[in-house]
């Protein structure tokens, strides 16, 4: 999920953490990870699977709006 | 025994031709918490760093270097912070092997250039962000 990393470089507001799900079972359980990749933004907006850049940005903006 | 095969090394060297500046990989370990994974992570990072003169490595201990961990927002091990000209906020939790390995290589390159491969629309939206965004990407090696 390279988009997250590129967004981090684009904005000081954005931090991205790639988490190896099987090595962090507690975190994975806490965020209800059933399939990967799973993206969770600001603990509010989430989706599974690869998405186009436009949709990823939409999820980021949605997460900020609902924060 | 090396983690990266000669073929892996050759492929990464080719990717690293795009590195445009210094990158520091800050590794957080803690033997008591996850000894094997932390050792594997450190070895992987050192093997990657050996493939470019532009990459430096700093290994810290989560329990001892608490202030640094707090500054980076790291509370799990093994962890990697990918820093370019500054800390862009790129983090990895766990040993980035398999699919995540290509993410690590890509993160190193984009941190070195400071030039994200995103559309103008996306860049404009991100520049206008008024609050912080935390993106967690759960992944697996395969």
Report on the structure:
The complex is a heterodimer of chains A (67) and B (142). Chain A is α+β, with helices and mostly antiparallel strands and 67 residues long. Chain A has a single domain (2-66), classed as Glutaredoxin (3-Layer(aba) Sandwich), CATH 3.40.30.10. Chain A is built from three helices and three strands. The longest helix of chain A is centred in the last third of the chain and has 14 residues, at 53-66. Chain B is an alpha+beta fold. Chain B has one domain (6-127): 3-Layer(aba) Sandwich (Glutaredoxin), CATH 3.40.30.10. In chain B, 42% of the residues lie in helices and 23% in strands. Chain B is built from five helices and five strands, in the order αβαβαββααβ. Chain B has helices at 6-15, 31-49, 66-72, 99-113, 120-127; strands at residues 23-29, 55-61, 79-83, 87-93, 133-139. Chain B has a four-stranded mixed sheet with strand order 2-1-3-4, with helices on both faces. The radius of gyration of chain B is 15 Å and the shape is globular. Chain B starts with 5 loop residues before the first helix and ends with a strand. The model of chain B has no long low-confidence stretch (mean pLDDT 96).
Put the structure in a nutshell.
Chain A has 67 residues and is an alpha+beta fold.
The gross shape of chain A turns out to be: globular
Strand runs of chain B, count: 5
One letter per element, helices H and strands E, the order of chain A comes to HEHEEH
Task: Give a short account of the largest sheet of chain A.
Answer: 2 strands, antiparallel
State the distance separating the first and last CA atoms of chain B: 22 Å
Average per-residue pLDDT of chain B, rounded, comes to 96
For the largest sheet of chain A, list the strands in their spatial order.
Answer: 2-3
Give the class-level CATH name of chain B: Alpha Beta
Total number of helices of chain A:
3
The CATH superfamily label of chain B reads Glutaredoxin
> C-alpha Rg of chain B, in Å?
15 Å
- Low-confidence blocks of residues of chain A: none
Tally of discrete structural domains of chain A: 1
Question: Class by helix and strand content of chain A?
Answer: alpha+beta
CATH topology of chain A: Glutaredoxin
Strand content of chain B: 15-25%
Q: How far apart, in Å, are the first and last alpha carbons of chain A?
A: 23 Å
Number of domains of chain B: 1
What letter string, H or E per element, gives the SSE order of chain B? HEHEHEEHHE
């Amino acid at each position: 999920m390279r988009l997250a990393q590129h967004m981090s470089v684009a904005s000081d507001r954005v931090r991205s953490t790639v988490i190896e799900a099987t090595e962090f079972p507690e975190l994975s359980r806490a965020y209800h990870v059933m399939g990967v990749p799973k993206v969770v933004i600001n603990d509010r907006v989430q989706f599974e699977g690869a998405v186009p850049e436009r949709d990823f940005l939409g999820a980021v903006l949605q997460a900020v709006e609902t924060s | 025994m090396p983690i990266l095969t000669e073929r892996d090394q050759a492929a990464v060297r080719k990717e690293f031709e795009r590195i445009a500046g210094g990158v520091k990989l800050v590794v957080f370990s803690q033997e008591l918490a996850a000894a094997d994974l932390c050792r594997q992570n450190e070895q992987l990072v050192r093997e990657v760093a050996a493939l470019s003169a532009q990459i430096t490595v700093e290994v810290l201990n989560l329990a001892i270097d608490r202030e640094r961990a707090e500054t980076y927002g790291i509370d799990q091990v093994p962890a990697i912070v990918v820093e370019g000209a500054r800390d862009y906020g790129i983090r990895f939790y766990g040993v980035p092997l398999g699919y995540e390995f290509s993410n690590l290589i890509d993160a190193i390159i984009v941190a070195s250039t400071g030039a994200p491969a995103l559309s103008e629309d996306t860049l404009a939206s991100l520049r206008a962000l008024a609050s912080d965004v935390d993106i967690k990407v759960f992944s697996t090696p395969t």
